[in-house]
């Protein structure tokens, strides 16, 4: 079906509409062979709170952005190549239901659908697109994924030293390797993680020691379980400002 739609006028028109919704700030999305598979609003678990984001699934990329005017205008466009994507289901907990992790080498995060059926459809379509792409390219699935950041609300004290309490003065920071919420003294070091940045990024002392000695696998943190224990945030408490995890901390 994808091949049949690739050069259809209807598909070209749909992609053009998406481009127009992002305006001049968005990247062009129309290329030969690209097909818009589906779209919808998902709740993205950001650093400070869950936020509504508009997602577009193509046969080769996943695009999302902030909602300015539903179905008319979006900004802060993000484009994720599907060849690098791995998804994992998340167990329901409180108001955080019907979720899964979207993991890539540069960025990983959790999203939630409105219903279990919607979640199943999204996951099935994403997996099918990824499988088709890898089959055509002959590549193997990526095993290198960026850590999913632990939301600020999950940590009242540093997750490494277990002593420093967070206050308006003593700010929270995130380790780019494990995703933990840590204090400044526990994350003063920088380390080059080429998949995430061309410059050294903030990491906690624990990960720095492991990376420096070559024990990189021990530094990996499986964050899926942390979302099964997330605080019961209200999914209605959403805004259209920038993604918090894109900040420098």
From TrEMBL:
RNA-binding as UniProt keyword = no
Task: Tell me which UniProt keywords the record has, alphabetically.
Answer: Endoplasmic reticulum, Endosome, Membrane, Metal-binding, Protein transport, Transport, Zinc, Zinc-finger
Where the record annotates domain FYVE-type, the positions are: 152-212
Which cellular components does GO assign to this protein?
A: early endosome membrane; endoplasmic reticulum
- Pfam family example for this protein? FYVE
Main function: May play a role in early endosome fusion upstream of RAB5, hence regulating receptor trafficking and fluid-phase transport. Enhances cellular sensitivity to TNF-induced apoptosis.
Protein name listed in UniProt: Pleckstrin homology domain-containing family F member 2
What is the gene name?
Answer: Plekhf2
């Amino acid at each position: 079906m994808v091949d049949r739609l690739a050069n259809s006028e209807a598909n070209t028109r749909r992609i053009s509409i998406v481009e127009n919704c992002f305006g001049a700030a968005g990247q062009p999305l129309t290329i030969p062979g690209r097909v818009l598979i589906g779209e919808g609003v998902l709740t993205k678990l950001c650093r400070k709170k869950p936020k509504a984001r508009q997602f577009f699934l193509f046969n080769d990329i996943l695009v999302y952005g902030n909602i300015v005017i539903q179905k008319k205008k979006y900004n802060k466009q993000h484009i994720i190549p599907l060849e690098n994507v791995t998804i994992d289901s998340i167990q329901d907990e409180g108001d955080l239901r019907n979720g899964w992790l979207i993991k890539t080498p540069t960025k990983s995060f959790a999203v939630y659908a409105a219903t279990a059926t919607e979640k199943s459809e999204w996951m099935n379509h994403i997996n099918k697109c990824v499988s088709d792409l890898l089959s055509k390219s002959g590549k193997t699935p990526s095993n290198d994924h960026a850590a999913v950041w632990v939301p600020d609300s999950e940590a009242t004290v540093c997750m490494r030293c277990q002593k420093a309490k967070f206050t308006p003065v003593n700010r929270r920071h995130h380790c780019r390797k494990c995703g933990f919420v840590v204090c400044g003294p526990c994350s003063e070091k920088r380390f080059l993680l080429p998949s995430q940045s061309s410059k050294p990024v903030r990491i906690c002392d624990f990960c720095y020691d492991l990376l420096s000695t070559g024990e990189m696998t021990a530094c990996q943190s499986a964050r899926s379980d942390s979302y099964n224990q997330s605080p019961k945030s209200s999914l209605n408490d959403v805004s259209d400002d920038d993604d918090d995890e894109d900040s420098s901390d």
